[in-house]
Amino acid sequence: MIEYLPYILSQFIVPENVALMIAGTFVGIIFGAIPGLSGTMAVMLFMPLTYSMDHATAIIFLLSLWIGGCSGAFIGSVLLGIPGSASAVSTCWDGHPLAKQGKASKALAIGMTASFMGTFFSALFGGFLSEQVANFAFAMGAWEYTALCLVAMTMVLAISKGNMFKGLASTSIGLILASVGYSPIDAEPRFIFDNIYLMGGLGMIVVLTGIFAVSHILITFGKGFVENPKVSKEGLKGYGLTPRDFKNEAGNIIRSFFIGLGIGFLPGMGSGLSNLVAYSSAKNASKHPEEYGHGAEGGVWAPEVANNASIGGAMIPMAALGIPGDSTTALLIGALTIHGLEMGPMVFANSGNVVYLMFFTVALVAVVVFIMQLFGKRYFPYILRVPNHYMYPALLVISLASAYVDSGNLYKVGMMMFFCFVGILMAAGGLPNSPLILAFILGPIMEKNMLKAFQYSGTWTSFFTRPVSGILMVIAILCVFSPVIQSIYKRAKKSKEAV
Predict the structure, then answer these.
(1) pTM for this model (two decimals)
(2) What is the 3-state secondary structure of the chain?
């Protein structure tokens, strides 16, 4: 790792890289703070602009957008009681009550400090652990990679909100869209209907921007804008924390960090789950659990440390295995592939400098975010006062420009609008977006490895006879049938209690 340090430092003496890092961080914070937007959407919208950049510049810019968005999500949670993204849902439960008690400055200080600690130290862990994971991955074959992709998709199904069958439907749509074009092994055309624009498959930006971003913009327009509550900027000066605050929450911080790091490492999980688990763990471990939900400081520390620690955790399987830890790392894998960088075990041999540049960038941007938030805390209310009727048309224009930049023709712009209506139909049916994103990104990887495995062995039983792939396949099956298993367990427990 030390041998790559001159290369890494050389990237941060380039004025363009530094300027884009600062600009990306600032834009990311805004996207994270405003409810309905997120760092993931920022990465998705601005990704096509990086195609003409050097790969190092593109990495720095995209990671700055992502880290800024993740770290800025707590702002809306504290000041409005509305989470900036799914990663800051549980921050609302104690962050906003603290603000209503006149402790907004302290709640914001906890949020920005916890975000910094989770991001910075998870990047350090990721930098040290990812190459070790990659060395282990060299022992994996096509069977293990197929099973790992399957686990990533089924884990998302297991935590799909409301109805797991809706998550399965969303995954199926993603796999169908991923199969458009020529098959990877025998080059058979599929779903192209003699259309030259479909021969190369559906572009990631076209599909995901249409389904994820543009549909959200139009749905928000359709519902009508609801004016956000007025936020006072009084009492937002200074830092707001003392050494005693760190001492009192030391155990909570450490526990939440490892919860976030561990959940981030699991394929398909990420900050949307880790903040909830960390909050629940903090409440259960607290000497005063009755304070949670009414302005407990530990209820802000726990989710914010955990959801940002998931960043480093999610980057480990992304770099070492080529498997995204969450939806944002799925987008980053696609962006890096366009720049000729294929994530996976061989990336350390072929492009080790790029991997360590990524982890170093995350750690550095964590520092930049903290400084920006520290000096800009008094201006946070102004971010939340941006009129929606100005902001959303600008986002729609960026989306259309992204589709055109990605493909260079208006046909793909029209295709993006088609997928926008697919996204609207999915929202009307209550289908979640995350399973579709992961299935669309992982579908080609899983198909290629599955076909290779069948060519090598000629039978499906080989997926279960190999130890690692067998364990992963069992985990995937258990994830799919987890609702049935839980239902049987609950019924058995009730009948036992009745006796």
Answers:
(1) 0.76
(2) CHHHHHHHHHHCCCHHHHHHHHHHHHHHHHHHHCCCCCHHHHHHHHHHHHCCCCHHHHHHHHHHHHHHHHHHHHHHHHHCCCCCCHHHCCCHHHHHHHHHHHHHHHHHHHHHHHHHHHHHHHHHHHHHHHHHHHHHHCCCCHHHHHHHHHHHHHHHHHCCCCCHHHHHHHHHHHHHHHCCEECCCCCCEECCCCCHHHCCCCCHHHHHHHHHHHHHHHHHHHHCCCCCCCCCCCCCCCCCCCHHHHHHCHHHHHHHHHHHHHHHHCCCCCHHHHHHHHHHHHHHHCCCHHHCCCCCCHHHHHHHHHHHHHHHHHHHHHHHHCCCCCHHHHHHHHHHHHCCCCCCCCHHHHHHHHHHHHHHHHHHHHHHHHHHHHHHHHHHHHHCCCCHHHHHHHHHHHHHHHHHHHHCCHHHHHHHHHHHHHHHHHHHHCCCCHHHHHHHHHHHHHHHHHHHHHHHHCCCCHHHHCHHHHHHHHHHHHHHCHHHHHHHHHHHHHHHHHC
